[in-house]
Amino acid sequence: MAVPILWQDPFSSDRRPLFISKYFSSLGEDEKFILKEYLEKHGINEEFSNTLFDYARFLKVLDIPHLEYKVRKWITFKLIESKLFDDNHIINLLFKLFIESGATLHKLVLGQPLELKPEIFYTLEENKQFFSRIQHLSLDILYGNDFESATLLRVLAEITTKINTIELCYFDYKPHLFHALIYIIKSQEQLRLFSLVGDYPKEFYGVISALESQKNSLQEVILDSCDFNAEFEVLNKCKNFKTLRIRYCAKKFSKLLDFKVSTLEVVESEIDTQSMALIFEKSGKLLQRLKLELNDEYRDESIQGIEFSTQFVELIRNLQKLQFLTLWCEEVDDIPEEVLKIRIIQFSEILPLTLKYLDLGDSWLEPYTDILINHCNVPLKKMLIDRLENERISKALVEFCKRNKTLNYVGVGRYYALDDYINISGNLC
Hints:
Elements: H1 2-6, H2 20-24, H3 29-41, E1 61-63, H4 64-78, H5 88-100, E2 107-110, H6 118-126, H7 129-132, E3 136-139, H8 147-159, E4 165-169, H9 175-186, E5 193-197, E6 220-224, E7 243-247, E8 263-267, H10 273-283, E9 289-294, H11 310-317, E10 324-329, H12 337-350, E11 357-360, H13 369-374, E12 382-387, H14 391-404, E13 409-414, H15 418-421
Parallel strand pairs: 1-2, 2-3, 3-4, 4-5, 5-6, 6-7, 7-8, 8-9, 9-10, 10-11, 11-12, 12-13
């Protein structure tokens, strides 16, 4: 029962590469003979012993960059002395074996340009079950004239329509890859998650616009290191959109925030108060998870002090179903300390009663943590703070536990000499 599970994703694990040899036992006699001659020619003597299982047919996750890495490690381990060795022959042999073994992939990860032999594509046409159940497609760094990867994507688009997750990393692709991506996006029936990690690309060549074909199914979008582009406005047409995660995006996404979501994450990205108010207004009755990690580099004058401005406090008050809140912001210099304390009290008192998780892991907030905790009456289950190194905070936590009787986890970002400052053993329970 365990073997099929252990061999679903062997190339992504940290296990030693010696398991590569076990696959060779499933090769045909002619292929074994050719491979044995090839290895001996390069100084590798390998015996293909029989195995209890046909391990190749258990494969569910094919991460090609990891496959290439494991093959190179296996070759390095087997070589008696350092020699030039073309690992592409073994990679193609294993790829063909996986296809013909009867395996059905659930996840495919493409990386650097492939050097696939023409027979691989013929074998795929003859064994369509290999790609027929793929649900997760990930494209890592692709560069150069990677026609093999583009061809592989087109074959994939013709075989399966069940992909629900597409992840693109580093968007410096060639035109033929963009065309293949558009083709595969439009060919899917229920794409739910689309993720793009770019290097601040200026153009998206219709790939984002192609998401309009998924307007009835798309639920989550992750944008990392991207500039705003008019193509993103197509997301406003998505009827079941629930989660938006914007990370390290330089230009404002004001026009993008014109829809309702239940999860919003903004990390180190430029966004103004007006945009924040707009999405809070539209999502107030739906928003359950909110994560804001902002610093001065990504804030213009209109967002200074948003974390405890009067407007922000009112916006939080209207989030009637909020369950998870993460708030990390840079120190506010233009608000007097007494005013800031009042705002923190107001913020603490208006937190929705639905809130279960509160992450305030900011170093600048540490002097006011006890004030916030002392005025909080929300039945929190988990709380994350930056530091726990003075008696005021420890006492506030103990009193909060006694008062609310729900807190069962406190995470501390930096604890320093915790035992020297605090003695709350047995009290915080």
